[in-house]
Every structure is written in structure tokens, then in C-alpha cells.
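Support reply, case 0932

Customer input (verbatim):
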Amino acid sequence: MEGDVERYRKPTRILHWFHTGAFITLFLTGLILYVPPLAIIAQDSWTRIIHRIAAVIFIIGPLLYLVFNYKAALKGITEAFHWGQEDLGWLLAAPRYYFLNDEEAMPPQGHMNTGQKMWWLMVIVFSAVFVVTGIVMAFLKTVAPAVILQWSVVLHDIAFIATGAMFFVHVYLSVIHPLMRPLRTGAWSSMARGKVSVEYARSHHAKWYQEIASGQDEPGK
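Our regenerated output:
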């Protein structure tokens, strides 16, 4: 499509959908433990087996990406942990944007806006929590001190609730929110096609678009 800007290259998009599939599987198989009427589904521990397989995929995907796309991975991690004055401005303007569709209230954003950085930061931090606590609960529950096992369960549950809630927010703001439509030009398009319209890039990520236009940054990562 003419007038498009590359936002995410194929390796990044593959990782996104690969990781998303694993996360949804982990979420659903973990949700069974929180909903008593669904306990019958977990009979014979087959959901536990699926959960552990998905956990392996959840871990391997990012590791492979880190090995084969080190620069892009490092750039993404750096963005997630880099916060400044413009992020405070975004947070203050966010209610008008999300509830009143007032896009002009938002300060110019870089490759990731503050909301995306917040989600990406949660993914990084809570993924580490999932992995560490999951290993303790799956393989060390008979040898780990009781207090370690108890805290592993608590932290695993907190990570589950926090990421689960934020995942639905992420889907809503990326696909359903009025300012994200039409899907072929906005946030959904960035992960489906790897490209967004120039208009979307200018309105939602003005600082990033200016960097691309001036040759200071590569389009996509």
C-alpha cells in the first residue's frame, strides 16, 4: 500500500504471534485453577502437560529472538526501561485520548508510546517472574523451603492477574478502540503486515516518524 511505513520486521512479528499464542495457552490452562466449575477439565492432569509445553515455547521464543536479533532485542528492552518527561505528559493526557478520543491531547511519541512501553515492561518483568516461580513450582516443590514455594505461588498468581488484565487492555487499545481503526492502517496492521500508514505514524508516533523521515532511525526493527 502506497504511503506505508515499515514498523516491525518479520522476525519481530513472528515472535509476537509465537509468544502471544503461548501466553494465551498458559492463561487459559492456568485460569482453570481459578474457576472451580472448570476443574473437571483438568482431570488426568492433561491441562498441566499443555501448560508446561506452552511454558517451554514461551521461554524458547524470546531466547531464539535474542540470539538471532540481538540488536533489535536490545533496542526494544532499552525502550521499555527508558522513561522521561514526555511519558508523564502521555499519562496525564491518556484519559482524554482513550475515553474522549482526543488525539490532539497526546504529546508526540517515539517508536513506542508510553502505554506500549508500560505493557512491554510488564511483559519483560512478569515473564521473568513466571519463569522463575514456575521452575520452583514444577521442579523444586519437593526440595524447596516451604516459604520459597509459598512465595512462588503468590508471585506467580500476581503475575497471572496483572498480565491477564493488561492483555485485555492491550487487545482493546490495539484493535477495538475507535482511534485504532481502520485495522489495515493502524496498530493491528503493524503486527499483521509489519506496516502502518504514514498518517497513523504521524499522529500516533510523531517523534519516531520524524526520525525516520530525517534518516536518524531505520523504519521497523
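We compared this against your earlier run and they match. Two observations from our side: The chain is about 70% helix and 5% strand. The CA atoms of residues 80 and 186 lie 21 Å apart. Please reopen the case if you see a mismatch on your end.
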